[in-house]
Amino acid sequence: MAWDTARQLDDNYKNTWGFAQLLEHIEIGILVLDLKEHAIDYCNAAFFEVLQNDKLCSDYQGLYDLFVRNIEALDDFDLAGRAAHQVTYQGRLFGHSVYKAASDCRCVFIRDITEKSRLEAIAQAANAMDNIGFIFSGIRHEIGNPLNSLKMALSVLKQNSETTSPQILREYLDRGLADIGRMEYLLKSLKAFTMYDSVELKDLHLVEFMGKFISLIERDFNSYGIRIKTEIPLDLAWVRIDERALHQSLLNIFNNAADALREQEVPEIHIRAEVRDQLMWLTIADNGSGIYPEQLKHLFQPFNTNKVNGNGLGLVITRKLLAMMDSDIDIVSEPGCGTQVTIRLPIVTEEVRALQLQRNL
Question: Histidine kinase domain location, by residue (predicted)?
Answer without folding.
Answer: 138-349
